[in-house]
Design goal:
204 residues; alpha/beta; two-stranded antiparallel ribbon
């Protein structure tokens, strides 16, 4: 069984001011924390970006990863997802953002373990909010679901997921056993967000 990891790195963030994945923290790009965590769990790591120049920079920094340019040139995340799924070699694919550097390997291992009986395993909060970009999918099924969603004119991840059958929604209360502070979902939108977790990153 082969597994892929697809990291979405769309480009410059309006709130952050630059590509978050390439922003240096402790002399390494932010995305490197994600790559280091996911690599032992997968057979390939794919970075999808919409910017050819940044793709070149990513390729020089991370030669062991596969770099893909978003084939559809749209700002919607689902197009980057589609590009990744279309090219992924793994039977299952993790979908991950480029701005959650404190991903828990234990949480990811649990998603991987549970995925064998499902087309997707997606964390869900008690409020009903889901984490579609901290999840694992059966690659071919998710690709078909994304195509269907786009053909129907809906460009949201929720729409894609609605086209999937046999989905396990995993309560975040279960995940708290593996990541008590739920830092795996902590994403960086502003520099202030990064400063709050720098001590955690230093430990890594």
């Amino acid at each position: 069984m082969k597994y892929s990891a697809i990291i979405l790195s769309g480009g410059e963030s309006s709130r952050f001011g630059e590509d978050k994945g390439l922003f240096e923290v402790y002399q390494q790009p932010l995305i490197s924390f994600i790559i280091k965590t996911i690599t032992p769990l997968t057979h390939e790591v794919i970075i999808v970006t919409s910017d050819p120049e940044r793709a070149t920079e990513y390729a020089s920094l991370f030669p062991s990863t596969r770099l893909l340019i978003d084939e559809y040139g749209s700002g919607a995340a689902i197009f980057g997802v589609l590009t990744g799924l279309k090219n992924a070699k793994g039977e299952y694919s993790f979908l991950l953002p480029n701005d959650t550097p404190l991903l828990s390997s234990q949480v990811l291992e649990l998603l991987k373990k549970l995925s064998l009986d499902y087309n997707a395993v997606i964390p869900r909060w008690a409020s009903g909010y889901i984490e579609p970009l901290h999840a694992i999918y059966r690659t071919t099924e998710a690709y078909r679901a994304a195509i269907t969603s786009i053909e129907n004119g809906s460009l949201t991840m929720r729409s894609m997921i609605s086209n999937l059958q046999n989905v396990l929604y995993l309560s975040t209360r279960v995940l708290e056993q593996y990541d008590p502070h739920m830092l795996t979902f902590y994403n960086i939108n502003r520099l202030a967000d990064l400063h709050k977790i720098k001590h955690y990153l230093k430990k890594r």
